[in-house]
Amino acid sequence: MMVLVRYHKPGGDTREWEQTLLADREEMIVSTFRFRLKKPFSPFDSRILIKDGYYGVMFDLFDNWYNVVKVYDENKNLVGYYSDIRTPPIRIKNGYEATDLFLDFWVELDRSYIILDLDEFQAADLSKYLKNHARYVAKKLKDMIENDVYPPKIVSSFNISADEIGEV
Fold first, then answer.
1. Distance between CA atoms of 113 and 144, rounded to whole angstroms?
2. DSSP readout, 60-92?
3. What is the span of the domain harbouring residue 136?
4. Distance, first Cα to last Cα, the chain
5. pLDDT tens digits, 28-42
6. Is the overall model pTM greater than 0.85, yes or no?
7. I need a labelling partner for 103 at 20 to 30 A (CA). Which of 67, 72, 88, 128 fits?
8. Residue 115: inside a domain, yes or no?
9. How far is the C-alpha of 79 from the C-alpha of 70, rounded, in Å?
10. pLDDT tens string 96-132
11. Does residue 130 belong to any structural domain of this protein?
């Protein structure tokens, strides 16, 4: 079964895509997908973090202003986590939608992390409330990572087999 994901970018476009649904619960939707990239994801011209063909398992948490994507390599080994700061998702027919607030985190397995897209965030036409709340959520994520409570328990305790990762 597929789930529709719709992401709005303030002042920009709205993107829609489908992912394979793994779980639909009151508190979250869990889905899986395969990264299809024209070039590897390598922010700041540093080492490559995500390559074409890697897998993602996305946890969209309905009461949170961020999501968590567990990123797996082509052999389905966990390589890191990616989190978008965004508005809490709202259910729509066949899926959910959220508004991207531009700030993202890449978290290594050793708990080191990179805050991404600061330039986009600073240039974004967001209300004062959304900018302040995004900063608050970024601080919260930073604290969670540094205090070893990221990813949240709802994500870390979710069991998924290697066969389910990237299943289409």
1. 11
2. EETTSSBEEEEEE-TT--EEEEEEEEEPPPEEE
3. 2-156
4. 9
5. 999 999 988 777 667
6. yes
7. 72
8. yes
9. 8
10. 999 999 999 999 999 999 999 999 899 998 999 999 9
11. yes
